[in-house]
Amino acid sequence: MDPKFVLGQKVHIITLIDGYGRPDPRMTKWVGKNGEVVNYFFVSAIETWEKTLNPPDIYCYDVRLDEGGDIVRGIPEVGLEPE
Question: Model's pTM, two decimal places?
Fold first, then answer.
């Protein structure tokens, strides 16, 4: 399985829905923001921080926000789309 995004790629943060169909409150302050992928890593479903998402093995990404330069760490692939 290859990562969907690569280092330096511009991405848009979208709403991450939990296993109960609700927006993940930990992500809401970044939804709608754009940034650049600065790191990515593979996470086994066994290690995933959010068990209610029932994810398969996935990649997570660290994104440097265009606005302010803060880095948001560990965003699951399903919480991003290409800009």
Answer: 0.84
